[in-house]
Amino acid sequence: MIDTPRYLRRFDTALLPQMFCDVLVIGAGIAGHCAALEAAQSGRRVLVLTKDGPLESNTVYAQAGIAAPMGDDDSVSAHVRDTMEAGDGLCDPSVVETVVGEAADAVRALASLGVAFDRVSDGSLLRLGREGGHSARRVAHAHGDATGREIQRALGEAIAAQSGVRKVPGTFVVDLLTVDGRCVGALVRTASGELHVVWATAVVLATGGAGRLFRETTNPAVTTGDGLAMAFRAGAALADMEFMQFHPTVLYVPGAGRVLLSEAARGEGAVIRDIGGERFLDAYDSRGELAPRDVVSRAIVTHMIARGETHVLLDLTGISAERLNDRLPGVVATGRSIGIDVRARPLPVRPAAHYTIGGVRCDLEGRTGVPGLLAAGEVTSSGLHGANRLASNSLLEGVVFGRRAGRSAAAEPLRPAGPAPVIQSDGPGPRAGAVDSEDMVRSVESALWRGAGVRRDREGLLTAAALLEEWSPWVLERELPEPSGMEAQNLILLSRLLVEAALAREETRGVHWRVEFPTRDDVRFRTHAVQRLGEPLVHAPAAGGPAK
């Protein structure tokens, strides 16, 4: 059982500047933008808060595309089957069928907003690609491997043109505010460092995931799991926190940033080799390079350990220069940035944390169980991904659940006119004086990578748990007024939740690999690990009947 102080610092809402809106959207990636547009179209006044600049989100870094069964050789049922297979027994069938059923409409909606998807030569049809885990070409891309950036651009322009939406960048959300169990707004820290209170009829969390829990990650610095942590403190349930997806092909150059090398590379014919130049994935799975990400990541780590190597090689030399420049310009540019011409030499790669599969539990309309609080996108555990996300389903989830959460938020009865409630908090403890937040974050990232990375065992998890338990009082029981300190608090809380859930799941399923429990155990663990503030972890049965 993980407990934590309700608020991160002392405050009295009556003494702070007040802001009012109908719908508060926290986060401005694909899910947040879609939620804001949907709520505004219902006539609601929408305020969108972003922690960093207007373009800094995981959406921007999404090199792969958005999956939708739109090809002549494809079908909704085939996309559903691939999603369920990747999810390894924990997908909610009704959610998968709903989201995949709305996939084509989601792509068309993005195109209508100006997303320039890649098309065949005459422009009549989308050019669809294939990625790991997919049985057909169904992934729509934009500018080759820059799909996320193009979607973010188009959605940002659509938001700017919407008179009912106001976007405020550089605003850190300290915590959600609740009255009698209902979410009524948020305490925020503006770019100038001032605390403000934002009152709202409904709040939509679209803050993305928590990839910064790990030292090796593809995620930008802003992905510190703030939305997950504040939802947990507000009383929402988190589910499946043990499931963190590790992308198998991330550039590995010591001292340089970890740059994701698109899943589309393997879909276009790239192969993975060991340092000796030998292909090896077929020995682990008959699908080879097109196996799901968890299978490929596990095979790479196993092979590296067996051979005592730090990385493997992504070989694109078998792909024509024309196709590389057309389909994979980002990968070509990444190679060039480190002095490698990918037409002639392979790139060094290894797995890194990429996508937070667990998150805030929500239903198909984005409702979290806390009245007034909705959620969409990577911050959620929606039932779509199960134990392993199928490539390119995440942007799809962002559109479908963003729109649904926006509609749900707009349907909340408007708050009656009258004075805002007064909320007071005495805070968790004394102001911190000796806590180096940046060092604490680095320590947490290293502990999680060693003890709860791709390869997990009881000894490593218990070592990580002991370290987190030792560090927690220094961080969670003190007032850390700067955003870096609050991020450290959020990360250490989520680290404890992840390790607790990983210890409890004594099996290997999807992205969760326990070496001492190498097989999937449907008798004991066809369940979701559910964690709530002040309550012990419980395993709730998965939807959909017996596993096949």
Biggest pleated sheet: 7 strands, mixed
Please report the total strand number as a whole number. Answer: 21
CA-CA gap between termini = 32 Å
Write the CATH architecture name of the domain at 429-541.
Up-down Bundle
Task: Note poorly predicted spans.
Answer: none
- CATH homologous superfamily designation of the domain at 429-541: Fumarate reductase/succinate dehydrogenase flavoprotein-like, C-terminal domain
Global structural class: alpha+beta
Mean of residue pLDDT?
A: 90
Q: DSSP strand (E) fraction?
A: 15-25%
CATH topology of the domain at 429-541: Methane Monooxygenase Hydroxylase, Chain G, domain 1
Shape: globular
Count of alpha and pi helical runs: 15
CATH class of the domain at 429-541: Mainly Alpha
List keywords for this structure.
alpha+beta, 5-stranded mixed beta sheet, 548 residues, Flavocytochrome C3, Chain A, domain 1
Task: Give a quick rundown of the structure.
By secondary structure, this protein is α+β, with helices and mostly antiparallel strands.
Account of the 3D structure:
With 548 residues, the protein is of the alpha+beta class. Among the domains are: 246-352, Alpha-Beta Complex (Flavocytochrome C3, Chain A, domain 1), CATH 3.90.700; 429-541, Up-down Bundle (Methane Monooxygenase Hydroxylase, Chain G, domain 1). The chain has 15 helices and 21 strands. Strands 2, 3, 7, 8, 9, 10 and 17 form a 7-stranded mixed β-sheet that branches. A hairpin with a 2-residue loop joins strand 8 and strand 9 (182-189). The longest helix has 22 residues, at 483-504. The two termini are 32 Å apart.
